[in-house]
Amino acid sequence: MTDTFNPGDVKVVSFDAEGTLVTPDFSYAVWFEAIPQRYAEINGIDLEQARKAVEEEYRKVGDQRLEWYDVGYWFNKLRLGMPAPVLNRCKSQVCYYPEVKEVLESLGKRYKLVVASGSTREFLKHLLHEIEPHFGKIYSSITDYRQLKTPKFYSKICQAMRIEPEQVIHIGDNWQFDFLAPSKIGIQAFHLDRKQQTNHENSLASLLQLKVHLID
Question: Which residues contact 87 (CB under 8 A, 6 or more apart)?
């Protein structure tokens, strides 16, 4: 914790979605299993060939471009048809981290909870299905603002909520998008490092630690 942090100033607690609230299982099933399978069916090739071809297309784009996160873009580019049926087939893979529901229930009694995610709304519909009622607002940087999770994105959602950045806490598992970007506009950010690979003062190993900082 930094010395300037004051829990009494906080009105909103913002969460990233995938890797923070939801495990990567659903996304992995979509990107690396369902899409290659669909590509193999359409192009009449075996699954391993399809997987290599699809992953090569992913590499060409890279995770610093909007298209990387846009499932509609990939289904159009790879000529796979509509994404909705494929996403529906993978929804059984959605899994929440063990502490998530307890933390949301506790924090929701004192703070407004929101999601600030780099996933598209098509993904978020499935990722947040069971826990969506906990959140007052859900923001997708890709769908709503056509940008990655930049400082500008966080400024826009603060404006949309009519709240100052200093009144917001954000937590997520991506150092660039969930810690550096919100920190630049004055949001108190925490890096969720479940594998404890870093030793930063604002890194947490579990969402339970966030609950301790804000409530206990």
Answer: 30, 71, 122, 123, 126
